Amino acid sequence: MIRHSSNERYCAELADIIQQQQLSAVFQPIAALNQAVAYGFEGLIRGPSGHPLHAPQHLFQAAAQSQCIPQLDRACHQVIIQAFIKQQLPGKLFLNVCPLSLMQDAFRADAMLDFMHAMGLDPSRVVIELTETQTTSDYALLAHALQQYRNMGFQIALDDLGEGYSSLRLWSELKPNFVKIDKYFIQGISRDRQKRQFVRSIQHIALSTGCNVIAEGIENHTELAVIQRLGIHLIQGFLIGRPETKPKPLLDFPKSQTETPLQIGQGSSHAGALLQIVPSASQTDSNETVWRRLTQQADLSAIPVVDNERPIGLIKRSDLLELFSRPFSRELFGARSCSTQMDCHPLIVEQATSLTELARLLTCSERGDLNDGFIITEQGRYLGMGTGRDLIRAMTELQISAARHANPLTGLPGNVPIQDAISQYLQTECNFTVVYVDLDHFKPYNDIYGYARGDELLQFCGQLLQNSVDPQLDFVGHVGGDDFILLLRSAHWRSHCEQILRDFQRQLAPFFKPAHWQAQSYLAHNRQNQLQRHPLVSMSLGAVEIVASDYQSHHEVASHASNAKHMAKTQTGNTLYIASAALQCA
Question: What is the DSSP letter of 532?
Answer without folding.
Answer: E
